[in-house]
Amino acid sequence: MDCLLCHSDSTSFVADTFLCQQCALVFKNPADFLSTEDDHDRYAQHQNNSEDQGYRDFLGKLLNPLKEFLPPHFNALDFGCGPGPTLSLLLEDEGGDVENYDPIFFPDAHLLIPETYDVVTSTEVVEHFKTPEKDWDLLVSLVKDGGLLGVMTQFYDESIDFQKWWYKNDPTHVAFYQEKTLNYLADNYQLDILYNDHKSVVIFRKRGY
Ligand SMILES: [Zn+2]
Ligand SMILES: [Zn+2]
Fold it and tell me: Any signal peptide, and if so, which residues (predicted)?
């Protein structure tokens, strides 16, 4: 099967997934993807909200390293913010003017304008991308040249027993990124990797000036 991200050849991997030989994306078989309606039912059960200190701490894994790179004032978009926007509040505390977009909960497509944001964040979103090439095209396009793109998703590496991995057991999780996949994204979209915790957080800067 062609890789859903880079179109190179992929081979069968464990648990009915595919592994791209070029960008190392691991992805589920599109024939097994949930319907959009079933996805919505699952997301509606997500309980993340801004009152939850555990969730705030979780977002700190991205926010804390991101702070190092934030200008004093910036505009930002939290892409895929979910039902209880929280990262936007934390970014506002850092001087940001922040919009929330979510295809289900805050579907304001007017926010999706290319080259608009100094900072775009996306936490626990990219593993849900069913059309990762198109979805990454959009995500990166939103960032101004020189702007920041902060992404959180659980990275896969060979130390993880994929067959038993909790992260892949969520039926709405369909795409899993390895170190090599992050490098592919950087090369393909002209991004520099400013920060990588090798677990779940990567911060890119879009080249251009
Ligand atoms: Zn690929
Ligand atoms: Zn998820």
Answer: none
How many A from CA of 152 to the centre of ligand 2? 10
Distance of alpha carbon 154 from alpha carbon 127, whole angstroms: 8
Enter the ipTM: 0.91
Expressed in angstroms and rounded, the spacing between residue 67 Cα and the centre of ligand 2 is 23
* pLDDT greater at residue 102 or residue 50: 102
Residue list, CB under 5 A from ion ligand 2 = 124
Chain centre to alpha carbon of residue 197: 15
Does 121 have pLDDT greater than 80?
Answer: yes
CATH class of residue range 10-206: alpha beta
Please give the share of the chain, as a percent, with pLDDT higher than 70.
97
Whether the predicted pLDDT of 51 surpasses 80: no
Per-domain residue ranges for the chain?
10-206
- Closest-approaching ligand to the CA atom of 172: 2
